[in-house]
Amino acid sequence: MCRWAAYRGEPLYLEELVSSPAHSLIEQSHCATRAKTATNGDGFGIAWYGDHPEPGRYRDILPAWSDCNLRSLARQIRSPLFLAHVRAATTGATRRDNCHPFVHGHWSFMHNGQIAGFDRIRRPMEALLSDELFHARTGTTDSELLFLLALQFGLDTDPLGAMEQAIAEVERLSRATAGEVLVRFTAAFSNGHDLYAVRYATDHRPPTLFASPMGASSGRTGHCLVSEPLNDDTDTWEEIPDGSAVTVTAEGIRTLLFQPQALSRAA
Known about the structure:
By secondary structure, this protein is of the alpha+beta class.
C-alpha cells in the first residue's frame, strides 16, 4: 500500500509534510506503521499549485528516501495546496508514468488501494473514455484509469459525485465480469482551489485516512490529510471513517457520506 499527504491552506513549504516531521512522508517511505508493507520504495511524486491553474509536478522512480532533489525542492517550494505520494506498486511497473500524483489540466489525483481483478475490467473501463481522455493516459495503473474515468463522469462540475459514479462503474463491471467485487480506495484530488479526499472499501477495510489542522499555534490556518499521522501527537489527528468524503475549502473542512454502492445497485 502507498502513503500520501495533502495540504490546503495558507502557503507553507512542502518540507513541513514531506521531510521535516518526525514521521514525514519520506520517513514513511521506508518505515510506514499503518500499512500492510512498511516500505514504499517504488517511486514518489509531488504536485503543487502556484501562480498558474495547472499544478507543477515532480516524479521519479527512485525511493523517496534516496532522492536528494526531493528534499531540496521540498525546502524551496512554498504552496497553498499540494499533494505528495510515495508508492508501493500493486498494478503497473515501476516507471515514472505510473508514479502518482496524476495530472490532467488543472486536476491532480493520487490513490492508495486496489481494484481486484483490474486486468479483467481494464478494457471496458477504457471503452468508457472519450478519445481525448483515452489518449491522455500514459501509464498502466488502475489509479490513473480511475482518475480519467472520474474526469469522464464530470469531475469539473461535481467532484464527489463523479468519483462516486466512477467507483460505482468499476463495481458494476467487476460484478458483471467476475461475479464479485473488491475495491479499496483512499484518494486525494484537487482542482487547484479545493482539496477532496475519499475513504471507501467494498469490504469495509479501506486504507487509512487522517485529518488535522496545521499551524494553529502560529496563527496559520490550513488542513492536512494523510495516510498516517506525521507525528506522535495523536490528539491532533482525526481518523476519517470508512464510506466518507472530505472537502477542504476556503470555508474549512467538512466530512460527508460517500456512497457509490447505492449508484451501483441502482444501475
